[in-house]
Design a protein that fits this description.
- There is one protein chain.
- The protein is mostly helical.
- It contains two helices and no strands.
- It has helices at about 5-35, 40-55.
Length: about 60
């Protein structure tokens, strides 16, 4: 394998790894937002509600 091919493979792996990390972080954020936002516990719901308002995220 030449140096150019090796660099190309490393770049491709790096880009797919970055994409996977980004998508995983976004999915985790959505799960946390939905899980806490719809939690039946008043304390968890109120904390999520206050956070949404502080970030100017409309919730009602």
């Amino acid at each position: 394998m030449s140096i150019a091919q090796s660099t190309s493979v490393q770049t491709s792996v790096s880009q797919s790894s970055t994409l996977l990390q980004t998508m995983s972080a976004m999915a985790f954020g959505v799960v946390v937002l939905l899980a806490v936002g719809f939690a039946p516990m008043d304390a968890a719901h109120n904390a999520a509600h206050d956070t949404r308002h502080s970030l100017a995220f409309p919730c009602h």
